[in-house]
Amino acid sequence: MKKVGILVGREKTFPEALIRNINERGNGSVVAEYITLGGVRYDAPPQYDLVVDRISHEVPFYRATLKRLALEGAYIINNPFWWSADDKFFNYSLAHKLGVAIPKTVLLPQKDYIKGIVSESLRNLEFPLNWQAIIDYVGLPAFMKPFDGGGWKNVSKVNSLAELIAEYDQTGTLCMTLQESIEFDQFVRCYCIGQEEVMIMPYDPRKAYLSGEQYLVDPNYLAPELKARVVHDVRTLCSALGYDINTVEFAIKGGVPYAIDFMNPAPDAELQSVGEFYHRWVTDAVTNLVFKRLSERRERPRYRWDALLNPEPRRVEAVASASEQATRTVTPKRTAAKKPSGKSRAKEAK
Fold first, then answer.
1. What pLDDT score was predicted for residue 5?
2. What is the pLDDT of residues 136-151, one digit of tens each?
3. Is the dihedral of CA 257, 259, 262, 268 positive or negative?
4. What per-residue confidence (pLDDT) applies to 244?
5. Least confidently predicted of 38-52, 138-152, 214-228, 240-254
6. Superfamily of domain 186-262
7. Is the bond preceding residue 78 a cis peptide, omega within 30 degrees?
8. Cα(66)–Cα(82) distance, rounded to whole angstroms?
9. What percent helix, strand, coil does the chain show, rounded to 5?
10. Any idea what DSSP says for residue 41?
């Protein structure tokens, strides 16, 4: 029997539906349940073959526990090591290199710092910031948002330099990004499960959460060519980032899908929020993913911390190109080998 653990926060309908789906399909050979955690021993035996993580980004104790479970061979959805290291600003930079359209974005130094950080600690920072140069590059209006946040928390739209500075002064120790505002014609949010299965959801971020008006079910919302590009970009981003569960949001302007948010490894899937159609789709897709991952042979560890601690030696010797080697190589003359005489053979035999 294989065991699947579900680690959750306040959500109810999605984890309950997922557990029910897995247990019905597993028929005793695969069992899913909520995880219960107390004091975790460093040498505790493994309890789960796979864990679906929905909350560890907000609870450090959970994140540390998941890393420990990964060490024991459990497959964690999503990878806790990469999730800990990832951030939205890196995502934007990576996406740009992958050919995905991204709004102009600037990373901003924090406004405030933790106790113990003094002016001498920040000698590498430009001060004061050249705010005018920043907005000349990004443009106005623009969105200021945390470089590693989510759920539209601490996001503000600014329309002038004065508004930007006023909002920045309220951000405290949060590290923020300033991003060009795409005044979109269309907006979609896309589930991506297993880095392959994509569901495009027409979505209006201007509507209130749980209003029932954020998500629409319209398979023809995007023109065929635009839909193909969105699906391609979603798979490109999620494959590059390695997330098994993620959502990617696009603000579409003039036929160009701009990816504005794609670090959502625990995306909303609640029935009251996304609606019955999308709730059922994502529950079934994640169920299929769980059984697929459980069936895969894992001959090598999926988490390569050992490569970080014991890296393979780097090659340090200089190697000439093929043409250079050809000019330097001296081909030795072949000479006939002399056969040893019988006398010498006899001598060697003694």
1. 98
2. 999 999 999 999 877 7
3. negative
4. 96
5. 138-152
6. ATP-grasp fold, B domain (3.30.470.20)
7. yes
8. 12
9. 35, 20, 45
10. P
Residue 289 one-letter amino acid: L
Ranges of each domain in the chain: 2-85, 104-180, 186-262
Of the candidates 200, 205, 244, 194, the residue with the CA atom closest to the CA atom of residue 218: 200
Cα gap 259→278, rounded to integer Å: 21
Write the pLDDT tens digit of every residue in 29-42: 999 999 999 999 99
The structure's pTM equals 0.83
Average pLDDT taken over every residue of the chain = 88
pLDDT tens sequence across 123-133: 999 989 999 99
**176 φ, ψ (degrees, to nearest 5):** -115, 160
Please check whether residue 86 is in contact with residue 44, taking contact to mean a CB–CB distance below 8 angstroms.
no
Q: How far is CA 35 from CA 4, 30, 197, in A?
A: 9, 15, 27
Q: How many CB atoms lie within 10 A of CB 285?
A: 20
Long-range pairs for 159-165 at CB < 8 Å and ≥24 separation?
161/131, 161/132, 161/135, 164/131, 164/135, 165/131
Pairing state between β 156-158 and 2-7: unpaired
Cβ atoms 47, 75 nearer than 8 A:
no
Which CATH number does the domain 104-180 belong to among 3.40.50.300, 3.30.10.20, 3.30.1490.20, 3.40.50.360? 3.30.1490.20
Query: Which among 183, 198, 182 is positioned nearest to 247, based on CA atoms?
Result: 198
Is the domain spanning 2-85 CATH 3.40.50.20? The answer is: yes
* Distance from the Cα of residue 7 to its chain's centroid: 18
Please say whether the beta carbons of 95 and 237 come within 8 A.
yes
Report the C-alpha gap between 303 and 66 in whole angstroms. Answer: 12
% of the chain exceeding 90 in pLDDT: 80
The pairing of strands 245-253 and 186-193 is antiparallel
**Highest mean pLDDT: which range of 165-179, 289-303, 306-320:** 165-179
Residue given tokens 């955690």 in the structure block: 37
